[in-house]
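Standup, Tuesday
Yesterday: got the pipeline producing structure tokens again.
Today: sanity-check two examples.
Blockers: none.

Example 1:
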Amino acid sequence: MAEAYKIADLRAKSPDELKALLVQLKRDQINQRFAVATGQSEQTSPIKQTRRAVARIKTLLNEMKLKAEAKASAKS
């Protein structure tokens, strides 16, 4: 489930760890949606938390990619 992922904690992780976490969160997101759709869970807030955690991770991965590209172009 998507705990409150702090941006500082996520920045400390490597891109590979973030990608693995992203896959896990996507899987959790699907399971949460099925649980709500089938009536097993009435809480929809975990879906929102997971969606936001996914967005944070995608943003960090994009920042890391842009930073690496900028470094590579500066060396050229």
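Example 2:
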Amino acid sequence: MAAVEEESPLQEIESLCMRCGENGITRLLLTRIPHFREVVLMAFECPHCHERNNEVQFAGQLQPQGCCHTLTVLKGDTKVLSRQVVKSDSATVQIPELEFEVPPEAQRGTLSTVEGVLLRAAEEIGALQEERKKVDPSKAEALDNFLVKLRSCAAGESTFTFIISDPAGNSFIENPHAPAPDPLLSVKFYDRSKEEQEALGFLVDSGGEESQIDRTSEEKHKYIPAGTQKLPHGTVGASLAHRAIAQGTSEDVAATLFKYSAPEEVMTFPSTCSSCAARCETRMYAINIPYFKEMIVMASICDMCGYRNSELKPGGSIPAKGKKVSVKIFSAKDLCRDVIKSDTSTVSIPEVELDLAPGTLGGLVTTVEGLIQQILERLKGMNEFVLGDSADTEGKERWKDFQLKMEKLLRVEQPWTLILEDPLANSFIAPITDTFEDDSQLHIEEFERTWQQNEDLGLNDMDTSSADVAYDK
């Protein structure tokens, strides 16, 4: 486990034992895990029946989006089974091959390993097998067969998929290859549905109908094998293609974009806070960035909970081709170039073997220097186990070496290359000259999107025939 720093003294309270009904003792300790979050460690002990258990609860704020970690465990690979797992009290664990699911109510707030989660689930299922055999022998026999398969997965005797989905965004699976991508582990972020907001304790406005493109919690976390997804026409492309979240305050976004032109008109309309569901106002304006395209800037502030959000949406139609923008960094002056990175863009720096998948940072309006700093902060947050006292020496050294390389990039000790590859052509790096043609360090290439890229963006299922008929008329 990562090293913890004590935040408050240990507290003891009396609580009821769920096993014997007598009073037991619960000990609470508020701690902070470096590079992770504030947590509350809870340990219960009953002096009468000697029942003992522990739990981890998150004391900090919820994350802006939910997260879904998918880990492929190969047969005979025992190292993958030893990866540490943080499961919050709102997370669900799934193993599609066994049609098995650990609901949020089970194993609440645990810090374990993949093997530990499976063995604990098998232990809890088998605890009442003797009673089941007396009441329902057929059901008990089916569970015995299932437990054999589950323990086989825990022992690494079969290949399976380990999925942990958390609408609160506080669950985690260790990546031993950090900061490099893990071929066995994929992480996706998603917006919480109204049902998930309500389950997390937020006020949800039940007056209006849900949008047709909102997926239910069951659909969102359901495992669907690759190549078998079937979605209605037009339900994916419109929502994914024009979505770029700017991770900064509205003042930061405005200060950057106002370098190009000021908005002609700022429109204000009522909206709902995505954090607490209270009524708030959203301001929107369109701005034209030279050599790029028209962009729509939206900013909202909630007076009830203080939540602030800025969104940068591309204007116009979806381009026919993607764009690859690369710039060669030679001096500190190049670090001040403005950068617009959409959430569909990948970030690559060949000199440090860095390759970030889409969605890792979301959408950003920043500079080259700010982008590098946010990459470091994001990777620290996603790979906190590499920095803890339980990490192996090889992992610590690999992370230190990567951090030193990133710091050298900020000092520009040697030339390096920043590459943004966006299949929707919504990313941009500003030139340091008056025109793109005069900037020899900046290169832009167009490329044809692959079928898989169109599938990920929902463009293969997009049906515009009805709109085409209207335009033809």
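Quick observation on example 2: The chain has four domains: 5-58, 66-205, 243-314, 322-447. Confidence is low (pLDDT under 50) at residues 1-7, 207-249.
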